Structures are given as C-alpha cells and as structure tokens.
Amino acid sequence: MLLADFVLIFHFLYVLFVVGSLPVIWLGAWLKLAFVRNPWFRYLHLAAIILVVAESLLGVVCPLTRWENTLRQIETDNSFIQQWLHKIIFFAVPENVFTVVYILFAGLVAATFKWVPPNSHRDLC
Q1: 32 DSSP assignment
Q2: Which of 20, 26, 29, 99 has the smallest set of CB atoms within 10 Å of its CB?
C-alpha cells in the first residue's frame, strides 16, 4: 500500500535525522558552519531523541511503526521500499539493548550542547 510506504519513508527520515544530525553537528562545528549552532535545529534534534528514549523506557511502540503495521495488514506482498528500508532501520536485537543504545545516544546529543553550544537567541538578532 502506498500510504504504508510513505509512513515507512517518513520513519526512515526521522531515524536519519536523529542519527545523522549528531555527526553533522560535530563535523559542522569543526568546519565552523553556522547552521549547526541554530537553536531550532539543535533543540528539535534533542527532542527527537528524547521522544525515542521515552517511548523505549515506557515500553511504547513507536506510533509510526504501529501505523505502518496497521496499514500493511491488508497487503499481501512486500514492496521494494518496505523490503529495503525495513532491513536498514529494524534489527533483531532484544528491546533492552535498544533502550541502552538510545539512552547513550541521547547522552551524546546532550553532551554535544556543551561541546558545540547552540547560539543564544541574542546572537540571532
């Protein structure tokens, strides 16, 4: 189903934003790129990983995963997009391993606020 593929693509982009933004911030700080200090970008990134950690600690299934799974119940064959994106973002590992990884990653994101602080709102005016 096309809608399920769109949900999966959005989910993949969310994961990419959460995981990919951290090395982008570090590299951008090293290259002195101003956008990595943008408070909107930085706080949105922090909020995105905190949401993942909260879902994991509370044992809540990601709403995007639940929505996609609901949509796919009416589908009999896997689409190309579903097949490859599922291989990229889903792993067969116990859930508590993911929780530890999410918490450690969130700690790195939070520590990056000290190492590469975002600009204050006064700097933006």
Answers
A1: T
A2: 20
pTM score, whole prediction? 0.80
CA-CA distance, 19 to 30, in Å (whole number)? 18
Nearest CA to 119 among 60, 49, 44, 34? 34
The CA distances from residue 75 to 2, 6, 68, 100, in Å, are 10, 14, 11, 34
The residue type found at 47 is: A
Please report, in angstroms and rounded to a whole number, the separation of the first and last CA atoms in the chain: 47
pLDDT in tens, 45-96: 999 999 999 998 998 888 888 888 888 885 545 555 566 667 777 777 788 8
For residue 71, the number of C-alpha atoms closer than 13 Å in the C-beta half-sphere is 17
